[in-house]
Specification:
By secondary structure, the protein is of the alpha+beta class. It is built from 6 helices and 14 strands. It is flat, with a radius of gyration of 30 Å.
């Protein structure tokens, strides 16, 4: 219902039309119509929420690299996680999370695309996971001093490898290990292998990041200062892979590991399990409606009560 004020102006709603006044301006708007979402649209929205939740956990685990990320990093990471989940060949929508996903779409993800790691560091480390769930990383030697690109005023940098395990189903992420390797400008690097002693927790997802941290003289103190910024801070997810289970013996090992873990953190406010339940419920409702629709169409024929007789039919004589 609309009302008329002392100045003869309408305020309120008449049908689908809304009258209002802002300052000295009279505004007439049509009321927004309700948008009816299909079951498929609702499922897509829920799965996007699942990817967004998982992406937030990854960003939390790698927070040291997100301070100098580019402005679009959050959306790009969510998009990459969603692509991983959608590419899953193991399970259908509503049953799958990042543990079922094709993780290759996360490999090579740049936290700052303004300065990609592959442009700042010309050599490419290789990664292997052995049968005992231990990681092995091989960093090739430099062929030329130009294999490492550095910003102005930098006299050296640190190549940091950080290994993080995330388990969305058991509600934790854990810092497994890291290593800092000093690289000097205009000096050839001889190469190095990194073989952490820590065993990755079975059933988890392992994320290995590689980043460059530049340092230069402060001019006031002996300690060098960090030169990383949003304009120059190369960091990448080099490898992401599923850590396999190794049979019944793994259960005891996992329990023992949980008791001893000191670098394990809960996935605060992760709603993946709830979202999967909502997706499952939505799919079940859709299947019931579809079955009811088929039953209703079949019932129209049965309701007529007409059944064709069998055998010879005597139609009589005129």
């Amino acid at each position: 219902m609309a009302t008329i004020d002392s100045k003869g102006r309408l305020h309120g709603k008449v049908g689908n039309v809304v009258y209002r006044t802002v300052g000295d301006t009279r505004i007439v708007q049509s009321k927004a119509a309700k948008v009816k979402q299909t079951a498929s649209t609702k499922e897509s929205a829920l799965e996007f929420g699942l990817a967004s939740n998982a992406s937030r956990i990854v960003r939390t685990a790698f927070f040291p690299l997100t301070y100098t990320a580019d402005g679009g990093m959050v959306n790009r990471l969510t998009g990459a996680v969603l692509k991983c989940i959608k590419s899953s060949e193991e399970k259908a929508r509503g049953e799958r999370d990042l543990h079922d996903a094709d993780l290759r779409h996360l490999e090579g993800f740049q936290f700052n695309r303004l300065c990609p790691l592959n442009e700042a560091l010309k050599v490419r480390p290789t990664v292997e996971l052995d049968n005992s769930n231990r990681l092995k990383v091989d960093i090739p030697a430099f062929k030329d001093v130009s294999d490492l690109q550095s910003p102005m005023y930098s006299h050296h940098c640190v190549l940091r490898l950080m290994l993080v395990a995330v388990n969305f189903r058991e509600d934790y992420y854990e810092y497994i290990s890291y290593i800092d390797i000093e690289l000097k400008n205009r000096v050839l690097f001889e190469g190095r292998e990194w073989y952490p002693e820590e065993v990755l927790p079975a059933g988890s997802l392992a994320f290995l990041s590689v980043s460059l941290h530049y340092f230069g003289p402060s001019g006031m103190a002996e300690a060098p200062i960090s030169l990383n910024s949003k304009e120059c801070s190369p960091a990448e997810l080099l490898a992401v892979f599923k850590v396999p289970l190794r049979g019944e013996e793994n259960t005891a090992e996992s329990s023992e590991r949980i008791a001893e873990a000191t670098k394990r953190f809960p996935l605060n406010n992760y709603r993946g399990g709830e979202i999967l339940k909502d997706l499952s419920k939505l799919r079940q409702q859709g299947e019931k409606k579809s079955a009811k629709s088929v039953a209703d169409k079949t019932g129209v024929t049965e309701a007529s009560g007409f059944v064709l007789p069998k055998g010879k039919i005597d139609v009589g004589r005129a």
